[in-house]
Amino acid sequence: QKEVEQNSGPLSVPEGAIASLNCTYSDRGSQSFFWYRQYSGKSPELIMFIYSNGDKEDGRFTAQLNKASQKLSLLIRDSQPSDSATYLCAVDTGGFKTIFGAGTRLFVKA
Amino acid sequence: GAVVSQHPSRVICKSGTSVKIECRSLDFQATTMFWYRQFPKQSLMLMATSNEGSKATYEQGVEKDKFLINHASLTLSTLTVTSAHPEDSSFYICSARPGGTGDQPQHFGDGTRLSIL
Lengths: 110, 117
Description:
heterodimer, A: mainly beta, 5-stranded antiparallel β-sheet, 11 strands, 55% strand, B: mainly beta, 7-stranded mixed β-sheet, globular
């Protein structure tokens, strides 16, 4: 069974620090990788996607992919209280379905 | 781009009522849409994959006669919760992917909070 694993947290960081969120996936044939943010009571919103090994930066967010270790990471620089949310890692194995992790709760302390 | 609209945002109704939820892709065509359910403080659970012009594919344990899915056009999928009961109360979220399969991400609607009294 294809799986995506995330630490449920909560991960607590002070305002201004770097938050580091991690995810591992089981299907070595996975092609596309995504990070979603979900605020409490809201639906998920896409914040990053990455397709190849290495880093991809977008503003304060950096997605990191290491296919050899089957690990996906999200770094949030200069964390703000408004970044407090659940972050979902998602992996697309090339079919119709995307496999979602259970999410990591992030709490940024002011 | 890639906007998904979901309606209604909230429904409160009596037990035994059937409830229809609409999911529309506003600026792209979606041959495939997805329906999720999420209970409080729990993860997203995929209920079914909706395919335009054909029958939906339901996940194990999801009753297809209770959760009717219709995907009659490339921009609209509907989920009908038939004869809803209190245990069906949940947050229902649809998503769609531009271009169907491949490397495009899913984009989510705003969700429908269903409360059955």
